[in-house]
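Appendix B, record 7
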Amino acid sequence: MAAPPTVTPSNLTGTYSLNKKLSDSMDAVLKMQGVGWLVRQAAAYSAISVSMKQYERDGKVCLDVEQVSTGGLKSEEERVLDWEWREKDDRIWGKVKGKARMIKLSELEQDEYLTSGWTQDCLEGEVIEMLVESRTDTWTADQVWGMAEVNGERRQVRRIVAKKGDKVHRISIVYDWIA
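Structure tokens (predicted):
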């Protein structure tokens, strides 16, 4: 279902469903990140619901993300969009550090994959950039979250460029608006 025009990178509050038919396969990226076969299979075949709450606290924009997959497997994450490194022990990716911010597309490192194909409100306003690095391996994942038109409908999209050594994977993850 299309997201309403009120849903923008500066207001992602709502519930979404991962649209696997419109998204690229995550398997190669997950494999490169050292995620085991069983978890990759679960990711490939589970329905995933994502609830987000975006708000301001102490003058900083925060984004709480709760992801629930088939079988009730749940992960929760709070992201502070201030471009400060934060470390985390993640049960899927292991020890990682990450940072996030709101940024104009024109100010992003000019990777055409990350900067093209967004809706007008993203082109004129800001998107969310997240950078995640493994603390125990050499992979990185640069993500841009925003709105894009996919199959004629406005949807929340995450474009990801994941790297490890000379391996580079570019994938788009597409979400349907639920409420």
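Remarks on this record: The chain has a mean pLDDT of 94. The chain has one domain: 14-177.
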